[in-house]
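Limitations
The structure tokens in this dataset are predictions for the assembled complex, not deposited experimental models. Users should treat interface geometry with appropriate caution, especially where small molecules or nucleic acid strands are included. An illustrative entry is reproduced here so readers can see what is and is not provided.
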Amino acid sequence: MSIQFDVAVIGGGPAGLAAAIAANGAGAKTVLIEREARLGGILKQCVHDGFGLVRYGERLAGPEYAQRYINELKETDVQVSLLTFVDKIKNLPDGYDLTLVSAGGLRHIRARAIVLATGCRERTARQIAIHGQRPAGVLTAGTAQYYTNILGQLPGRRCVVLGSGDIGMIMARRLTLEGAEVLGVYEAKSIPSGLPRNIAQCLLDFGIPLHLCKTVTRCFGHARLEAVEIAGVDENMRPIAGTEERLECDALILSVGLIPENELAETLGVRLDPVTNGPVCDQNGQTNVPGVFSCGNASHVNDLVDYVSESGAAAGRAAASYVPGERLYAELRAGEGFLYAMPQRVELSRVPEELTLYFRSRDERGKTRVSVKLGEKLLLQKRFNQLRPPEMERVTLDLCGAAIGEGGVILLEMEEIV
Amino acid sequence: MLRKPYKASACYERMVIIVKNLICITCPTGCRLEAEYAGGKLTVSGNGCKRGEEFALAELTNPMRSLTSTVRTANPLMMLPVRTDREIPKDKIGEVMKLLRGVVVERPVTCGEIIAGLAPVCDGSMIATCDMS
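Predicted assembly:
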């Protein structure tokens, strides 16, 4: 007979930790399943600081932020299963059957509701059309970070970083501090993707050059990377013939994007949003499959861990009080100029007094007014001095007195302020 | 870069004019600052809050940074993450990194515990940023 839980949380990173604590706090018998030996997820290797500014008002290092949640979890009676992998989830009439694999072998548990806190994966060299051999020394930024910060092994001596996202710039600084030479950070777009402060404190502080409108097109070397080919790109990010140059290096670090991890979700029939690559969720992270919740970077890639924890806690609380039954929804639609807005829909049985929305703009913009409307009724208007696609914005709507009905549409609009 | 002004050089100080474009690193907003230091007086524009002014002044006199890194432990494949307990002068980062290379932690630690003093290089200590059993 398999053990019955109210909530099974899959993934012990910041989203899963917050979800398990919240579910437990709401009275649910909760299990937290983590495939690694330690809790904390990717925060374990993010030794740089800047985490927790929103949540704690402090600039914590990644492991430090995770430690606060781990300590909080220790005070609960959440059952934690480390070194355990969820192999399969089966839909039952009254919940879910999870097949778990660990050193002890296969076992089954049951849960009324599931919280998917599986995080995201990094895009690899093959996904961005880098040609040539497959020598050692071509790594994603996360792998380089794991080698450097957890194992204490430098992945290369002469490194090229492709991608100007925050992780790429932070790794450029980290490798430099540990004695490697970072030849440059290359970015195919015409604007850097990361935060300006990281350009300042990670690149400018250490004299690391940032090359825009340039990408890596080819790797040279057999056993070990010997060089890469750099090429200029046009406005459609296609390499321009004749601009190729060869750059000798022994490591290529890729920071070229993250993709929410939803393989388990897909086996359950969870509908994914083609823009976020995460499930279509309501305000509590509930997917189209009843009792299956998604949070953190599995639902969409966040840039602040504080918001990952926030979405985890919301999903955990909602999973704890989940009861099967028909549900009615209003839709949230992001108009012209937005890349996406979350959540994609609002569940109406428990319309909250306040609704938190996250959005990203499609392009870099100056002074912009964002309006949120329900039909003709204006729910919120907010000015932004600038909007940038790499920076997720968060607004809170007051829904008191707003009569949202089934099929209603909450519309986000933006206009330039002249 | 201008060092912290000495009293003796007050008259020299009045002659110095520095104009610098900076990106404030105090918070994720990353305001673009224009700092002008002339006649011993600092004027800052572009800052969204008061912290921008303080940052600009420090950048023009004695830039400070917090430093995060890792140190070796008894387990050859497990580093302990650490950070400075305060900001340290930017130009001391290299020396502190050198100092950390010699540190090995061979006991259980809790998050926040002092791992190494930075005394020979600058004020402050490195503290652990997670528990290690």
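Some entries come with short summary sentences. For this one: Helices of chain B lie at 10-15, 50-61, 93-101.
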